[in-house]
From TrEMBL:
Domain (OmpA-like) ranges: 113-240
Name of the molecule in the record: OmpA family protein
Keyword Signal in annotation: yes
Keyword Membrane applies: yes
InterPro entries: Bact_OuterMem_StrucFunc, OMP_bac, OmpA, OmpA-like, OMPA-like_CS, OmpA-like_sf
Alphabetical UniProt keywords: Cell outer membrane, Membrane, Signal
Endpoints of the signal sequence: 1-25
Gene3D superfamilies attached to this UniProt entry: OmpA-like domain
Cellular compartment(s): Cell outer membrane
PANTHER family found in the cross-reference section: LIPOPROTEIN YIAD-RELATED, STATOR ELEMENT OF FLAGELLAR MOTOR COMPLEX
Amino acid sequence: MIFWTLLRSAIAGAALLAVSFATQAQVKDVIVDAKGEIPYAIDARNVVARSGTGLCWRTGSWSPAAAGAAMAGQLPAGCECDSDVIPKDKCTTVAAAPAPAAATPTPAAVAPVAKKITLSSKALFGFDKAALTPQGKAAIDRNVIARLSEVGTLQLVTVSGHTDRLGSQQYNQVLSERRAKAVRDYLVQQGVSADKIDAIGFGKTQPVAGVRCADSLGRKKLIECLEPHRRVEVEIKGAN
């Protein structure tokens, strides 16, 4: 179980677009050294979490200097995540002497596969609640469990909880984490290995782009208008 602290910087881009095979093939894991301030969200393996489009998830402590100071092996983590703000000379290593040719043949490349599924919190929970309803469990069975086989060999399931802007950041952060954990726990009950699931709460830091709701609407209509922000996103990664 992984719970994330306040993430105050939202990731730009289309979080709901499906990722193409070609894009996925270019993305590699960035494993940071667990020393000092880490300006990116990481999982239990110290691997930087990415969005469906390959963008690294920044924490509220992110800055160009922090991205250049946090190391991922011989190079700063920012060389992979934010190469446009890191000096190029910091992202260059001296090439090692080529190793002798291996006698064994190179194995065939494995094609990565990813699916991203967005579930409305309304379909999963009661308003302002974090306990899955029977209808919510059925929605997960239908939209997530039934699709796990589509990615071949399952590698990782990332469950992220999101809220609307009503209420404090602290309250929404806790609620989003509880909802992500509830979905994760249900997936484990249905047979998904717990060590292949990450649960992350983003609170209200990642609203859906293009949804605009004026406070003048009144509370009931405002809650209805903000519904797209209240969601749980499940990203399934595997390999054929």
